[in-house]
Structure formats: C-alpha cells, structure tokens
C-alpha cells in the first residue's frame, strides 16, 4: 500500500511544515509522496534529502475545483516551475454540475500535454461529499478513457468520516477499476485497520498523529 503525506495547512509556516514532515519521516513509515501547496514547494524541496526518494506534489485548484480552465492551467504551470514532480488536480466542479463533459475532456487534454512535455505525473481529486456515487463513477470512467488511472475520492480538506471515505474508495475501484487513495482523517488504530483490510492503492496521511496510528496498526499485523 502506497503511503503519502499531505501538508495542506494554510495556517502553517514553511518551518512548521518542515518540522512536521521531519517528525513523520522519523516514524520509519515508507512515505513515498509529500504534498504541499505550490507556494511551499521551493522551501520544502530544499529540506527533503534526495536519498529519501520522496516525490513532491501539489494540489491544483484546491479544495473545490471552482476556477476556470485558464486559471487551472496557470496553477499547473506555476507548480511545475516551482519544482513539483506530480500534481493532483481537483476535478472541475462547474463543468461537472453543468454536464460540460466535452469542455472537461478538452481541459484534461491540455493538462496532459503540459504534464507529458514536462515529465510530470498527475492524478485527479474528486469530492465524494459534493457528488453522488453514480456521478463520481461516470467521471472516473471518463478519466480512465483519457489515460488517468489514479484518483483521490476526497480532497482531504474538510473533516469527514473515514469510513465514508473508505466506502467511496472501494465503490469506485470496484465499479471503474480506478486506483484509489484514501484521503481522510485517521484517529484510531481501528480506523487504520479498516483501511489496511480494504487494501486501497494508497493512503494519504495528514498529521503526525495519523502517521503514528498507522505505524502502530502496521506493527500489529
């Protein structure tokens, strides 16, 4: 199971983020990806040792996906120029609710062209609390036809019920074959155990507490 860490805390300084990342890495968990806002990348990148082999990523149009295509492309370009190796794009809410799927395909094609030209990985974030499961399923099937095989069913921005997060992840994997990364708050070993049992493609942690809980759960296996 892939383990990631997101530091999307707008109230934290670069120094705060560096300290928390250091604490999480010291748990011994095999963190494969760290996500921070684009404006944090340059500072954080300098503090991550290359031997850690950690991918740095940033969310785009976070957390609701409400910007227009031009703004979203500019955000992608800025994140890439700042040194990210991967971007996680919030699905465009306005295009989805208005069923402008052709425009969504066109936007994805532009983002794909940009990422391929810069050798940047990319995935999409959805928000299971904003859309029905059937809508999410439809969007996932579209993304898959366009070569995108990994999604986050949640932005991870708002507090949610981790069980609902797991259910959304399992549902979308079963219905579409998408690789899903659980992206919610973990408070207890019991919750961590449920995630491990479901065997998602990955889990994205948000705090040092969640990292320690996951570490404890994995040690009991």
Topology:
Elements: E1 2-7, H1 14-25, E2 31-36, H2 41-47, E3 55-60, H3 69-82, E4 86-90, H4 93-97, H5 101-117, E5 121-125, H6 133-145, E6 150-152, H7 162-176, E7 179-182, H8 189-198, E8 202-205, H9 208-219
Parallel strand pairs: 1-2, 1-8, 2-3, 3-4, 4-5, 5-6, 6-7, 7-8
Helix pairs in contact: 3-5, 6-7, 7-8, 8-9
List keywords for this structure.
single chain, 221 residues, alpha/beta, 8-stranded parallel barrel, globular
Number of strands: 8
Integer-rounded radius of gyration = 17 Å
Widest β-sheet, arrangement of strands:
1-2-3-4-5-6-7-8
Helix-strand category: alpha/beta
Straight-line N-to-C gap: 14 Å
Q: Any idea what the shape is?
A: globular
- Mind describing the biggest β-sheet? 8 strands, parallel, barrel
Multimeric status of the protein: single chain
Strand content: 15-25%
Helix-strand string: EHEHEHEHHEHEHEHEH
What does this structure look like?
By secondary structure, the protein is α/β, with parallel strands linked by helices. Helices cover 48% and strands 18% of the residues. The chain has helices at residues 14-25, 41-47, 69-82, 93-97, 101-117, 133-145, 162-176, 189-198, 208-219; strands at residues 2-7, 31-36, 55-60, 86-90, 121-125, 150-152, 179-182, 202-205. It has an eight-stranded parallel β-barrel with strand order 1-2-3-4-5-6-7-8, surrounded by six helices. Strand 1, helix 1 and strand 2 form a beta-alpha-beta unit. Helix 3 packs parallel to helix 5, helix 6 (133-145) packs across helix 7 and helix 7 (162-176) runs parallel beside helix 8. The radius of gyration is 17 Å and the shape is globular.
């Amino acid at each position: 199971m892939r383990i990631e860490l997101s530091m999307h805390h707008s109230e934290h300084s670069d120094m705060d983020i560096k300290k928390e990342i250091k604490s999480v890495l010291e748990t011994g968990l095999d963190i494969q990806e760290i996500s921070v806002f684009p404006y944090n990348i340059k500072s954080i990148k300098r503090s991550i040792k290359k031997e850690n082999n950690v991918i740095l990523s940033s969310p785009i149009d976070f957390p609701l996906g409400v910007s227009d295509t031009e703004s979203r492309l500019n955000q992608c370009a800025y994140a890439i120029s700042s040194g990210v190796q991967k971007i996680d794009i919030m699905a465009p809410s306005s295009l989805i609710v208005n069923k402008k799927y052709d425009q969504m395909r066109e936007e994805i094609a532009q983002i794909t062209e940009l990422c391929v030209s810069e050798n940047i990985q990319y995935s999409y974030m959805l928000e299971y609390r904003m859309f029905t499961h059937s809508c999410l399923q439809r969007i996932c099937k579209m993304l898959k036809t366009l070569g995108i095989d990994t999604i986050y069913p949640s932005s991870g921005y708002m507090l949610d019920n981790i069980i609902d997060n797991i259910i959304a992840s399992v549902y979308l994997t079963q219905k579409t074959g998408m690789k899903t990364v659980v992206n919610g708050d973990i408070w207890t070993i019991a919750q961590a155990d449920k995630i491990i049992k479901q065997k998602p493609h990955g889990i994205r942690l948000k705090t040092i507490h969640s990292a320690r809980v996951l570490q404890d759960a994995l040690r009991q296996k």
